[in-house]
Write a structure and sequence with these properties.
The chain has 197 residues and is of the alpha+beta class. It has helices at residues 6-9, 32-35, 47-53, 62-80, 175-196, and strands spanning 37-41, 95-106, 116-125, 129-140, 143-157. The chain has a 5-stranded antiparallel sheet with strand order 1-3-4-5-2. The radius of gyration is 18 Å and the shape is globular.
Amino acid sequence: MMGMSGKYEHKDRSHLFKYLPESRDELPPRTMKDSFDRALVPLSSNIMLQNRYTTTRKGLRVGRLLEDMDLFAVWIVFKHIYSPKIPLDVPHPYVAVTLLVDEVIVHPKRYPDKDLILSGHVSYAGKTSMEITLWLDQLQDNKLQRVTNANFVFVARDPLNKSSVLVNELEPSGDDEKELLKLSLDTILSFYTYKLT
């Protein structure tokens, strides 16, 4: 669980409850651009990283990729969550818990000696949960080629991980973000329709 690293597991975090919102009105709306980020895993220049990511058959370890994507998704979650009442010098009162990983697509061409580029953003925000859309690319023949993409769903929890906590509303800016939000809503609705039938 992100937000509860080893150094906090045995410390009292109850003092952080005062920084949690009582209503969503306290949280400013966020856009997909607010949470968008990109990170580079320099496999082309770091032999130690290559060894960690390479299988015995000279492919990329899919499990390692998914671990990195999950960790990166948590970073995106914390970029999305913004409350003006949380001071900069206080540990974040939220805990982010991975609820599920969906629509994982792993493409066949993956190279252990080419840099990995992680990208993603929040694509939907409910009252206490967020969907994060991530993709992983590699530069091949001077073009970005998709390695994998997935949707992660996270739940925001209180400092002691006892109950859910409100998150910022997602407000699309521009037609592209509106279309992405519509796609996420369609996916969520079809998931619940399937579960109910």
